[in-house]
Amino acid sequence: MNLFDLTGKTAVVIGGSSTLGGALAEALAAYGTQVALTGRAASNAEPVKQRIEQAGGEARTFAVEATSAEDLKQLLQDVVDWTGGVDILLNCPGVNSATPFFDITEEEWDRIMNVNAKSVMLACQTFGEYMVSRGAGGSIINLSSVSSGPPLSRVFAYSASKAAVNSMTQFLAREFAPARVRVNAIIPGFFPAVQNRSILSPERTASILGHTPLGRFGEPSELQGAVVYLASDRASGFVTGSLLRVDGGFGAMTI
């Protein structure tokens, strides 16, 4: 028995055009899932789609505003029309900012909370209701952050938004469990990507690496095992409400 065989499953990856979302989508496709990739423009996810297809997998791209309930409902219908169902939801949208606390505007707060937290809530409503009512189980995986708790310095709104993701993950794990829909989160450590490169000054980089026992940044491919594990009912069928750290030991470090 292959614990990680996902053949016949369909995964929807919200934010599949991002660096980490794309790497996770490629892993799911490599183990047999048909993958629906979203971006604000469908073309944003095209490079990920091409890599999946070149590796022998199957994917389609969809233009979706992750903070729009109507877009997400249409996405669900489009994917069900394509493959016949949705088994896995992976929430990966994310934006960050290093604005000092007293300078954070309402507009910036709303933007970060909308993209990082509201989008997760809406996607879990749309796809969670579908999975629960279908009665065939499912796996929802949210991408959190080491800044979700304790919060990192300089990223107040981002930290608050990712703490909300953790709370939603554990709340929904309890709510959806009777329907065998598992809800978990991955807590990545530091994986330099477009959204966080601007805040990685030399001083901050030195501080991060000094607090990471493995002494380096992570590679996107090092998140792939975690997502395949959580997506597989065979491998993680008794795992729900978990916050799985993939952080090089960052969360275990004190003094």
Structure notes:
The chain has 255 residues and is α/β, with parallel strands linked by helices. It is 42% helix and 15% strand. The protein has a 7-stranded parallel sheet, with helices on both faces. α5 links the parallel β5 and β6. α1 packs across α7, α3 packs parallel to α4 and α4 runs parallel beside α5. It is globular and about 50 Å long. It starts with 9 loop residues before the first strand and ends in a 9-residue tail after the last strand. This is SDR family oxidoreductase.
Mind sketching the topology for me?
Blueprint: E1 10-14, H1 19-30, E2 34-39, H2 46-54, E3 58-63, H3 69-83, E4 88-91, H4 106-134, E5 138-143, H5 156-176, E6 181-188, H6 202-210, H7 224-231, H8 233-236, E7 243-246
Parallel strand pairs: 1-2, 1-4, 2-3, 4-5, 5-6, 6-7
Domain Ketoreductase: 9-190
InterPro entries: KR_dom, NAD(P)-bd_dom_sf, Sc_DH/Rdtase_CS, SDR_fam
Family: Belongs to the short-chain dehydrogenases/reductases (SDR) family.
The end-to-end span amounts to 43 Å
User: How do the SSEs run, as a string of H and E?
Assistant: EHEHEHEHEHEHHHE
**Could you describe the largest sheet, including whether it forms a barrel?**
7 strands, parallel
Question: What would you report as the Rg, rounded to the nearest angstrom?
Answer: 17 Å
